[in-house]
Design goal:
126 residues, mainly beta, Rieske Iron-sulfur Protein, six-stranded antiparallel β-sheet, four-stranded antiparallel β-sheet, 10 strands, binds FE2/S2 (inorganic) cluster
Length: 126
């Protein structure tokens, strides 16, 4: 995974900045991302803007118990396991690969130059 030539790994935060049960938004390579440190220690990263009308998802409701990210604008709800839309179905947040290097949380940015935030439909799953 770390040797994937199609990814550029970017340091986004340290473990000290993202405790378990917490989230943060950041800009990575020009695009907003949302990092979540899930219960049990797994860290996931999604596009930070809602695919509906590009509202910052970090301003919405992040519910670690339910495992959902809900946009503040029109309440589209996404599963924090894989970014799939729970309501409505048929949409999906782009999910970045994440790895740790010591204390650093690294996010894998695809190097193909396409905007990540526009890859939100399930059909485009790749
Ligand atoms: S902008 Fe997010 S639900 Fe409409």
């Amino acid at each position: 995974m770390s040797g994937d030539p199609n990814l550029k790994w970017v340091k986004v935060a340290t473990l000290d900045e993202l405790w378990e049960g917490d989230f943060l938004d950041a800009k990575v390579d020009g695009e907003e991302v949302l990092l979540l440190h899930r219960r049990g220690g797994r860290i996931v990263c999604f596009q930070g803007m809602c695919p509906h009308q590009e509202i910052l998802l970090a301003d919405g409701a992040i519910d670690f118990e339910k495992g959902t990210i809900t946009c503040s604008a029109h309440e589209w709800e996404f599963d924090m396991e894989d970014g799939r839309g729970r309501n409505p179905l048929g949409c999906k947040l782009f999910q970045y690969q994440v790895k740790l290097e010591g204390e650093f949380i690294m996010v894998g940015v695809p190097t193909d130059g396409r905007l990540r935030r526009l890859r939100h439909s399930v059909e485009e799953d790749a």
